[in-house]
Each structure stands twice: as structure tokens, then as C-alpha cells.
User: Fold this.
Amino acid sequence: MEKPENCIIVIFGASGDLTKRKLIPALYKLFEHDLLPERFAILGVARTELTDKKFRDAVFQFTGSGESNNELRERFKRHLNYIHLKDYSPAEFAGLNKKLKSLDAELETGGNCIYYLATPPGAFEDIVLSLGVEKMQFQGENNWKRLIIEKPFGNSLESAKELNRRLCRIFNENQIYRIDHYLGKETVQNIFVTRFSNGIFEPLWNRNYVHHVEITAAESEGIGSRGGYYDQSGALRDMVQNHLLQVLGLIAKEPPSSIRSEAVRDEKLKVFESLRIMKPEDVESHVIRGQYVANKIGREIVAGYREEMGVERESHTETYVAIKLFIDNWRWGGVPFYLRTGKRMPAAVTEAVIHFRPTPHSLFRGMDGSLNQLVIRIQPDEGMLLKISMKVPGRGYNVQEINMDFHYSELAGQYVPGAYERLLLDAIEGDTTLYARGDAVEACWNFIQPIVDAWQKYPGIKLFGYPAGTWGPENADDLIEESGLTWRYPCRNLSGEGSYCEL
Assistant:
């Protein structure tokens, strides 16, 4: 495999958890598999006073132990550098610019540079503005500059537009990489391949053969120490606006003209622009919001959301949301899509389920009533499962549902990169396919904003409680109106005996 171009990777917020737990381990894995450039440097930038040695010691413990020899680990360490800034003002960036030019000359990286904003969103504007003042965003014919930013990409439609405006005053859109780690997961990418490389699936992937589509992102943990942030965000902004809608875009998009980045992202944008915008009177019947309450799980008493640290005692922030939505285009007209996400659920599982229409005439009435399902498991235990009906051996035509399944873990000898590994390597190579584009972010917010507005304007819209360790409010079952159908429950509600999951 051809090596990527030499470059410097600058990480703002280098003393934070994201850098320690995700970015440095991902870069080390890439180094371990010989996927980084021949010449590169990683420059940590933060307001914490650290030396190069202290920075290396602080972050390197998160790369794991026993996974490679000490000599390799020491070689990687030498690529780590650090610079302390008092703040992110233009005056401080003069020193940063000088440091970068020194590293560039020493390593002959040709002026190629990635700026990774691993900071709270409130620092984005200051950092980008200071980069612009020092003219650190300019690229030439033979070198490049790229900016990676983490979600949230705004907390409303207007703030997302304003963020895009401010970013694009300094950087060109094709320099901006909005990272969503869900899109780096192998199974998410495989949705694209499954659809468009298999003749048995693509002809069925439309309103004529699909009954409904279900996307779930369940988390077993609560909010932990994120109460202050989460109480201002909630499940709708934190999960649906980005992660779930991005997965929806992959499932629902039309075949692109090629696998070029812009062709793929153009088709996702069309899906987001086709989402039926909800009127205020539709929100209560199409969206269920919930909040977990205290419950006993096994021998442990789990606190309710309002008892969590940093949460307002009368908070109406949702920790669960389920949505019924429609895509108003030729392929999906009339097909309902159901999205749900929640915290303190029975298991941490993310999956998409394609429910196919039943046969037009049931020969085995009463025995084959279930819909065929294609289950795409994103996490954990990535894989795919097809549910079909088969005859039970013996007399008569007794029918039983069976599973045909595949797990990525069964690919012996195949290295499956983590999400951040894949996305960081794509950014180094200049591939934006798995990154969100500014217009797509705004289109997603255009769908989400009316729901947020309705909750704020009409306080009578109910917030349902659900016991921690369960699948959310029972009212969410009412979204799926057809008799005999409900959500797919891959795990049972937690009890003293634990839980089990199916794939």
C-alpha cells in the first residue's frame, strides 16, 4: 500500500480525554500497522503546562501494553511533541506557527498539516480565527491544510449555520472534515457495499418490498460525569441529529454515480433534504421522549436521571427519543422509518433493521406471520443477520424462524480498524467520504429543529418516565401502529439474572 504524504498532525485540546483515549491510541495503531507517513509529527496543543516528556507519558499509557514490542513503542513516542498556549488568542498562535515551521523544516513534511479540534465547541471559533490571523490555513498547489472538528456541529439550525459561516470564512469547505465516529465503523460502511454490490438486495431496497426500517442506538450506561453538558443537549441533539440520521442517509440514499467522495455525499444530502418536516401538531404523535428513573438492576439501585450529578432537579431533558419519520421521494414514499436511542437501556447495541413486506398470499397462515428481517449490527459484535422462515423437520408444514448470520469477528487474520483509525487515515489521505458536509449538517438540523421548537413551545407534550434497565417508555410501541408489530428487542429487560443479546 502506498504511504500517505508526509504531514504534521496538530491536536488542540491535547490534554483532554478524547486525545488520550481515542486519538493517540488510534494513531499508534496506524503506526503499528505501518499506515502513517514516512515522516510525520504529532503536535499536542493545550492550555495545560506540560513538557514533551510529560505529554508523552500522560497519553502513552492509553495505547495499551503488550500489543507491540518496546522498540516500536519508543519509536512512536519520539513523534509526539507538545506546546503550551496560555489561551487560543492570535497572539499565542505566533509561537505555534513558529513551532510548526520548525518541525516542517526538520521533517520535510512539505507544509502539509491537519488541525484536529479536540476541544469543547466553545473554543472552535477562537482557534479557527487565530489560525486565520496567522495565515495557517493557506495551502498551495503542492501542499494542503485540513481541519477536523468534533460534534456537536451547533445546537440548533441557526447555530449550525453560523458555525459553518465562521468556519468557511477561514477554510474552504473542502478543507473541513466534520467527524462522526459512527461513520468509521466497519459495519456502517458495509451498508453501502451490501446494497450496491449484491443483486439480491438492491432490487428489493424500496417501497415495493420494504415494509419499514428501524434504527436503534441503545446505551446501557447513564450520563456519568457529563450531566452539565447532557442536560443542555439531550438524546435528540446528542444522538439523532448526527449519528442516527447519518446511518439513515446510508440506508436510504440512491446509488451514486461513482464512489468518489462528493458523489456519495451528494446522495446522502438528497435523503436529508427529502425528510418530511413535522408540523407542531404532528410532533406529539410522531415523537416519543422519555427520561430514565431510578430502578433496581440486579442487586444495584440505579439513580434516576434527575439524581445524576450536574442535572437540574426538575429537568425535562430527554434521555430517550423515538421518532417515526418519512422520506418523501420516489424510492421510499409511504415507508415509515423508526429511529430510537436511549440511555440506561438493557444493553449497548446499535443496529439497523430492514423489515421486508410479507408474502402477498400466506399459504401457512398462523405459522409464518413474522416479517423477514435483515439486521445490520453496528456494535457490538459487528455483523449481519438475515431472518427467514424454514420448515421444521417432520410431518406437516410447521414453520420456524431461523437466522443466517455473519460476524466480523469470524474473519480470521483480518485486521478490522477502529472507527477513529479509519477516519484519521482518511483525513491524512484527503478522503472526505465518511465525513459530514456543511450542507448535510444543516439539512439534518432543518428536520430536527421543528421537534425542538415544539417541545419548547408546547410544554404539555409529555415526557414519559421509564425505569433504568428497560427499553424505554411503553408508549413508544404506539408509534408502530400496525397490529402485531413492535420494535425489535435484541435483549430482554435487565433483571437480577442479567441479560442476553441476539445477533
User: Anything to note?
Assistant: Residues 195 and 202 are 5 Å apart (CA to CA). Residues 494-503 have pLDDT under 50 and may be disordered.
